[in-house]
Design brief:
The complex is a heterodimer of chains A (109) and B (116).
Chain A lengths: L3 E4 L2 E5 L4 E7 L6 E7 L6 E7 L4 E4 L2 E6 L4 E6 L8 E8 L3 E3 L3 E6 L1
Parallel strand pairs in A: 2-11
Antiparallel strand pairs in A: 1-3, 3-8, 4-5, 4-9, 6-7, 7-8, 9-10, 9-11
Chain B lengths: L4 E3 L2 E4 L5 E6 L6 E8 L3 E9 L2 E4 L8 E7 L2 E6 L8 E8 L10 E2 L3 E5 L1
Parallel strand pairs in B: 2-11
Antiparallel strand pairs in B: 1-3, 3-8, 4-5, 4-9, 5-6, 7-8, 9-10, 9-11
Chain lengths: 109, 116
């Protein structure tokens, strides 16, 4: 069935460093790949997304890359700040979103 | 817009009781999704509706769970009878689906359900 694998499950970086989270998906028909950030006790909120007709997208300090052939996509956060600390979820969608298991990112001052 | 509205925000009930969770999607959105989130299983899609019609309920755990969307502005998720393993945060999300690509889903604040 449809599956999205995400790693690492936890990531600890120093403030100012970069963070990279990687996901793979199984359904080659997936055409939409969002990334959500979830702070403790809050709802998931979209931070960036990419469609299958685009290879890369950037929004300030965050960027997402997509390799359709390998069925990989990645989230890149540069110049990390303590407020980036949260759980990040990738997802892949054709008609419904299949979420990865999440990455807990900790940014230490 | 107030965003996706869910009620109640917290629910504590005893095993065997019926639980009804409610959701009001963002006005104009035509897709609605119910998710369950637990530490063990992460974010799981339970069911989703397009234009008020259930499209995929393969994530509904068992017959104790049912969902309805009687109109474009209201949906319910019912658990009857509830069990302790149903304890989780239940999120409702909505989106506007147009064309072949998926679109951003907006999540509600969630309902934290505790079944004793």
């Amino acid at each position: 069935g449809e599956n999205v694998e995400q790693h690492p499950s936890t990531l600890s970086v120093q403030e100012g460093d970069s963070a990279v989270i990687k996901c793979t998906y199984s359904d080659s028909a997936s055409n939409y790949f969002p990334w959500y950030k979830q702070e403790l006790g809050k709802r998931p909120q979209l931070i960036i997304d990419i469609r299958s007709n685009v290879g890369e997208k950037k929004d300030q300090r965050i960027a997402v890359t997509l390799n359709k052939t390998a069925k990989h996509f990645s989230l890149h956060i540069t110049e990390t700040q303590p407020e980036d600390s949260a759980v990040y979820f990738c997802a892949a969608s054709m008609n419904k979103l299949i979420f990865g298991a999440g990455t807990r990112l900790a940014v230490h001052p | 817009d107030a965003g996706v509205i869910q009620s109640p925000r917290h629910e504590v009930t005893e095993m065997g009781q019926e639980v009804t969770l409610r959701c009001k999607p963002i006005s104009g959105h035509n897709s609605l999704f119910w998710y369950r989130q637990t530490m063990m299983r992460g974010l799981e899609l339970l069911i989703y509706f397009n234009n008020n019609v259930p499209i995929d309920d393969s994530g509904m755990p068992e017959d104790r769970f049912s969902a309805k969307m009687p109109n474009a502005s209201f949906s319910t998720l019912k658990i009857q009878p509830s069990e302790p393993r149903d304890s989780a945060v239940y999120f409702c999300a909505s989106s506007f689906r147009q064309g072949v690509f998926g679109n951003e889903q907006f999540f509600g604040p969630g309902t934290r359900l505790t079944v004793l």
